[in-house]
Amino acid sequence: MNIRKAVIPAAGFGTRFLPATKAQPKEMLCVLDKPLIQYCVEEAVASGLTHICIITGRGKSAVEDHFDRNPELEALLEEKKKDDLLKEVRRISGLAEICSVRQKEMLGLGHAVLAAADYVGREPFAVLLPDDIYDCPVPCPRQLMDVAEAKNASTLALGRTDAEGTKKYGIIKPRPVADRVYQLLDMIEKPGPERAFSDLAILGRYVFTPEIFDMIRETPPDHRGEIQITDAIRKLVDHQDVYGVEYEGDRYDAGDKIGQLEAILALALKREDYREALLGLLKSHGFFLKE
Question: For 89-147, what is each residue's pLDDT tens digit?
Fold first, then answer.
């Protein structure tokens, strides 16, 4: 199995961040010093993925522009001898081979993934949801890809969750097969604690065999009219083995305001160029953190 393509669904309206997202994509909101979607693209590239398809929608041209060349800006930075900024701007536009595909209707994550079917073809591929920022010693998609390549099978990122989390995520029925690796026997979307199979949640990173597209096409919409990727994965389990990896590292759910704030603070405290200034600022406002 040779995995080289990634799909990043980024077509949603970002209603949890209104009014900030009324006229700009949620994926372009700044987290510390770069837009949310750039973390996702850099994570894919660090995992060895070289071809990236971003699923966009109406009003998302800023996402596409961010990863494109901007000759006028580059000329200005060169003229003003801002070499570090020029180098960074050029690096962003050269991260990977990036294209975009329009999702014309917001009909669920399964529908968004299916929009990339022509781009992906009959290859295995990764899916990364840009709401999640992963900070791992080995990039999270790479952790999945290692297992997917060894098992020649679809593989999902898993993490432990609490009772409240069972209302937010797809929950799996696991069979342990190795350290932090599970075969998926069944799964259910947002079941709540009473119906959850376990405390292992599917958390925004996937590696799929191309057969997932067939399963999505066979998956009917739910009561909200959306095609859930969890329902398609359940169908896939009936045809081939699917695995989950309990990822190693830190994850921040930057898809809501408090999660984004946590991501900004956590990432800033890990960086030498922000840490001392942030600690000083917090102390000046009466907050005390361990050094």
Answer: 999 999 999 999 998 888 899 999 999 999 999 999 999 999 999 999 999 999 999 99
Q: What pLDDT was estimated at residue 285?
A: 84
DSSP, res 143: H
If you write DSSP's letter for every residue of 206-267 in order, what string do you get? EEE-THHHHHHHHPPP-TTS---HHHHHHHHHTTS-EEEEE--SEEEETTSHHHHHHHHHHH
The H or E element that residue 185 is part of is strand 181-189
Q: Evaluate the omega torsion of the peptide bond into residue 19 and state whether it is cis, within 30 degrees of 0.
A: yes
Task: Give the number of C-alpha atoms closer than 13 A to the C-alpha of residue 12, restricted to the C-beta side.
Answer: 21
Q: Which domains are seen in the chain, by residue range? A: 5-255 (3.90.550.10)
Please state the pTM of the whole predicted model.
0.92
